[in-house]
Amino acid sequence: MRYHLLVPTDFSENAWSAALYALKLYANKPCTFYFSHAWTFLNSGSRTHISQSYIDPLIEEAKAQLEAVKEKAKQESSNNDHEFETIFSFGSLMDSIEFANKEHNIDLVVMGTKGATGAKKLFLGSNAVTVINRVRRAPLLLVPKKSRYETPKKILFPTAFNRFFGEEIKRVKQLAELHLSSIDILHINKKETLSEIQNSNLESLKTELEDFDLNFNWMSDYNSKAIAITDFIKDNDINILAMINYEHSFIENLVKEPIIKKLGFHSKIPFMIIPRID
To answer: Which residues form the UspA domain (predicted)?
Structure first.
């Protein structure tokens, strides 16, 4: 299988950290990496006319920067089955991602996040939140600022077992297959409290993941899912967090509240968000 990865970049350190993570995560797999940049000119003086002769050099500079990122990524890769392309577009980041998804059948979008910094403890940043809310074609892997790559030996998949696991679970399986990772299933409640439907979904999940090193975990002494997940990650040396973005899910609540200190969610590891399939 050849993977198609989209790596949007604004030429920042965060974006390059995400690119490096993607290169290492897929180091031994045939891949095409698409480095994309969405160029927008913001004119703070709305009544001031800006000539095309001023704008054109800025566009050319951005194109050159994008090409430089691609060449830098080539130097980092030692896999002859890695291919590198650039996508330069005008408009919003979201438009650029949606275009790439349609044109190139993207398997994963990899983005850097700001990390919990500053007085407001911003976790994601407005761009990442927009992408989480609107991307429906491919999973999104958010890589925290200055995240150091570690071979993902352990993947955490929290679930309430409220829904049947369909096509979405294939994304977790593909992630685990990259490095033969074990999968920790986390339910934040007691096993004895599961309904008949939840137990049915639990059994279907066991069947779906029977070929993997699978561990089931139950945490009942937490009022906050965010704190439970954070503590489990820390106590069990988890390398990647993966969740499905269902309607009214934990993820939906997370992106509505930018002050991470209030939520108690401090993710220092990559976070894969899998879009629900309606």
So the answer is: 3-143
Domain contains 271? no
Distance CA 252, CA 71 (A): 37
| CATH number of domain containing 206 | 3.40.50.12370
For the chain, residues with pLDDT lower than 50 are: 43-44, 115-124, 257-264
Tell me the C-alpha to C-alpha distance, in Å, between residue 9 and each of 71, 98, 102, 125, 268: 14, 15, 19, 14, 20
**Cα-based torsion angle of the residue sequence 36, 68, 19, 173 in order, rounded to the nearest 10 degrees:** 60
Indicate if 138 and 182 belong to the same structural domain: no
Residue 76 CA to residue 91 CA, distance in Å, equals 29
> Is residue 40, in this structure, part of any structural domain at all?
yes
- Which ranges constitute the DSSP H helices of 77-209? 93-104, 126-134, 169-179, 196-208
Which structural domain, as residue segments, surrounds residue 196?
154-243+252-266
β-bridge partners, 140: 109, 273
* Same-domain check for residues 158 and 103: no
130 in the same domain as 87: yes
Q: 122 by DSSP, 3-state: which? A: strand
CA separation for the pair 136, 53 (Å, rounded) = 38
Q: How far is CA 32 from the centre of its chain?
A: 17
